[in-house]
Amino acid sequence: MNEFFAAIWGFVASIVPIAGSDVPQHYNGYVEGDYVYVSAQSGGQIDQLMVARGDRVEEGQILFEIDDSQAKATLSAAQARLAQAKANLANLETGSREAEIEVIRASLEQAQVSLDLAELSLGRSERLLEKELVAPAKVDADRAAVESAKAQVAQLTAQLQVAELPAREAQQVAAEAAVSAAEAEVQLYQTQLQDRQITAPASGLIDDVTYDEGEVVGSGSPVVVILPDNALLVRFFVPELDRSQITIGEELRVSCDGCSDMLMAKVERLATDPQYTPPIIFSREERSRMVFLVEARIEAAEGLTPGQPVTVARPQ
């Protein structure tokens, strides 16, 4: 829509003179929304969509949720590693008894069995995937299970080695560092899980919803478009001679059919490149036909909608 309006209004501004003055004080323009495009930080299947076009939302309100089953599994594995790291540190601090060592050995054997089974399941899934008999998600889940099982075996192996040796200061320092690293990992995965629930960054109206429930969205792809409150701009075009007379922060009057007489807008952008130019050489005689985009934010936008034509006036 921006390119369409730029072409139309640029053409109008270049061919329509304003009577009674060599330097026009009135310009044709239109209203544009300063939209917010809401996306997920990581891709996935849209599990729930809580809004529709035209809905009003408040800042912090949940807009949609991305499937979080894999994120929950990853967090659970990280929490297990944290628990093991803390247990390892506790053993170093208190000294491991033979009974505790036997428990670790038994846990390690069980973890190794789980790893073997996970690797068998992954191999079977990969072969079936080659024949298109299973979904890629099944292979991804089996691969995650293998990685989790490997981490479990590695952690228990290290824990058993520490338990069988006399505690040393260096070992305790390493165990403390392992706990800190595991805590940071858990915090990271907790944040990633929370990021699967996307909330509104600002209050406003839902202008568009670009995906439906069940569809897979890529990372960074907009799912919901919000027009925030008080987020309307006036876009208009001025001739090359007028551009230098308009300044950032200048207040302009805005009028339209049926609008309040007190609408004001503050200039916040002056384009440096022409938006519309005739296909000719920029001679001194022809430079006056160049027009430049100006954007001004409307202070009170009641009654205005994006796409609405307006007239912009510089106060006398």
Question: How would you describe this protein?
Answer:
There is one protein chain. This protein is α+β, with helices and mostly antiparallel strands. It has three domains: 2-34 and 231-313, Elongation Factor Tu (Ef-tu), domain 3; 37-67 and 197-227, OB fold (Dihydrolipoamide Acetyltransferase, E2P); 69-194. The protein is built from six helices and 14 strands. The protein has helices at residues 2-15, 69-94, 98-130, 136-164, 169-194, 240-243, and strands at 26-33, 36-39, 44-49, 56-57, 62-66, 197-199, 204-209, 216-217, 222-228, 232-239, 251-255, 264-276, 291-298, 309-313. The strands form three sheets. The chain has a six-stranded antiparallel beta barrel with strand order 1-10-13-12-11-14. The longest helix has 33 residues, at 98-130. It is elongated.
Q: Helix count?
A: 6
**Dominant shape:** elongated
The secondary-structure element order is HEEEEEHHHHEEEEEHEEEE
Number of strands: 14
Biggest sheet: strands, sense, closure? 6 strands, antiparallel, barrel
Low-confidence stretches: 9-24, 278-283
**What would you call the structural class?**
alpha+beta
- Which value, in Å, is the CA radius of gyration? 32 Å
Helicity range: 40-55%
Strand order of the largest sheet: 1-10-13-12-11-14
Strand content: 25-35%
Distance between the ends: 32 Å
How confident is the prediction overall: mean pLDDT? 80
How many structural domains in the coordinates?
3
Topology:
Blueprint: H1 2-15, E1 26-33, E2 36-39, E3 44-49, E4 56-57, E5 62-66, H2 69-94, H3 98-130, H4 136-164, H5 169-194, E6 197-199, E7 204-209, E8 216-217, E9 222-228, E10 232-239, H6 240-243, E11 251-255, E12 264-276, E13 291-298, E14 309-313
Antiparallel strand pairs: 1-10, 1-14, 2-9, 3-5, 3-8, 4-7, 5-6, 7-9, 10-13, 11-12, 11-14, 12-13
